[in-house]
Design a protein that fits this description.
This protein is an all-alpha fold. It is about 60% helix and about 0% strand. Helix 3 packs antiparallel against helix 4 and helix 3 runs parallel beside helix 5.
């Protein structure tokens, strides 16, 4: 009787372990967070204060940094190595993870710098930069559709 309880207990624990094990979803080449929520006109931007403009500026920098290194492969978030026919072996996965970690580190330093320095920027220059980034992002979104 004691043996059956131990046996069924182990089977139960193994079943729970297997059932709760999550298969890791393939990692996107371009982060799914690399999206601009809204594009603005010059008039709309001129009505904003510097604080919100700084946040828009930083958001666009993040999207560009998360997108530009990959445009030879893909220009939109959500595409995986497998989608492109690239084997998801240890070397390719490690390369993608290393790139992602490096990018996040770079963005941390860049965003910190932007928050310290860009408040001193002329509002007109800030608006021009945001509009330039937005035009670049719009071009990236249409890349490969011709």
């Amino acid at each position: 009787m004691k043996g059956k309880i131990i046996f069924f207990g182990l089977v139960f624990l193994l079943t729970i372990g297997v059932a709760s094990a999550q298969t890791k979803a393939p990692q996107s080449i371009i982060s799914r967070t690399a999206l601009v929520k809204k594009y603005y006109t010059k008039t709309e931007l001129e009505q904003l204060q510097k604080g919100p403009l700084l946040e828009l500026y930083i958001e666009r920098i993040k999207v560009l940094v998360k997108t530009l290194p990959y445009i030879a492969l893909v220009s939109k978030p959500g595409v995986t190595l497998t989608d492109l026919g690239i084997p998801e072996d240890a070397n390719n996965t490690k390369a993608l993870n290393t790139q992602s970690e490096s990018m996040n580190s770079f963005l941390d330093v860049t965003v910190d710098f932007q928050r310290k320095m860009v408040p001193y920027a002329d509002k007109g220059n800030l608006i021009s930069a945001i509009l330039f980034y937005e035009e670049t992002l719009k071009s990236l979104n249409s890349l490969g559709e011709n």
